[in-house]
Specification:
The chain is of the alpha+beta class. The protein is built from two helices and four strands. Helices cover about 25% and strands about 35% of the residues.
Amino acid sequence: MTIKSVNLTSIEGRRFSKLNEKIRNVRIDNNSSVTLISEINDSEASIDFRYTANYGGVGMIKIEGTIIFEGNASALAQQWGSSSNMPNEIAGEIHTAIMRICVPEAVLISRDIKLPPPFPLPQINVQKKNKREASSGMEVA
């Protein structure tokens, strides 16, 4: 069970707010979903997916593509066709591959349309060092 290739077919980025509007505390929701699984042959399946980064009313980024999956393709396609579900192990591998490909792409798109990156940036707090008061006596523990 491996990911053979990932091909992006559609990239869309929209900013709904004006450039001079300040963006404060916007909630960014990332989502990946599988839209279709079809069997290419016994050992390969084509998996269509969609990644979205939703910035509330501020903007959105949507990326669509196809993954070529190597493994038991016929069983995967049959299970998807009957229940729109797949085994947890395969689902984890596929959604991880989607995020690994799409999040870096979404970072570049967000920069171009002047939106925050689609993940929280680390907060760095620089604190002033307190001057140590001169001690006039013994230190007691």
